[in-house]
């Protein structure tokens, strides 16, 4: 663990804790390392989702009714 760590208490479901213990043992890593990695991955996914929303912010908005009318007008519905 690095010097810049923070201690916290997390209550895990018994089956999740057991799975983490097994994964930690098999991968020769600590439970803390695994949890930190999982949290980083999840936060990165959230950041990517937020960026996708920002990238699409300038796209035109179409109501559901307008979409249906457009699909009907073009013979796709």
The average pLDDT value, as a whole number, equals 93
- Overall geometry: elongated
* Through-space gap between termini: 58 Å
Beta-strand content estimate: under 5%
Sheet of most strands = none
Q: What string, H for helix and E for strand, traces the elements in order?
A: HHH
- Low-confidence region ranges: none
Quick rundown:
The chain has 3 helices and no strands. The chain has helices at residues 14-27, 31-55, 64-73. The model has no long low-confidence stretch (mean pLDDT 93).
What does this structure look like?
The protein has 77 residues and is mainly α. It has one domain (14-73). 64% of the residues lie in helices and 0% in strands. It has helices spanning 14-27, 31-55, 64-73. Helix 1 (14-27) crosses helix 2 (31-55). The longest helix is centred in the middle third of the chain and has 25 residues, at 31-55.
């Amino acid at each position: 663990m690095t010097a810049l760590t923070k201690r916290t208490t997390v209550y895990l479901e018994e089956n999740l804790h057991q799975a983490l213990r097994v994964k930690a043992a098999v991968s020769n890593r600590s439970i803390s390392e695994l949890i930190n990695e999982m949290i980083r991955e999840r936060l990165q996914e959230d950041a990517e989702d937020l960026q996708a929303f920002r990238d699409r912010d300038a796209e035109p908005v179409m109501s559901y009714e307008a979409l249906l009318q457009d699909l009907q007008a073009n013979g796709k519905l």
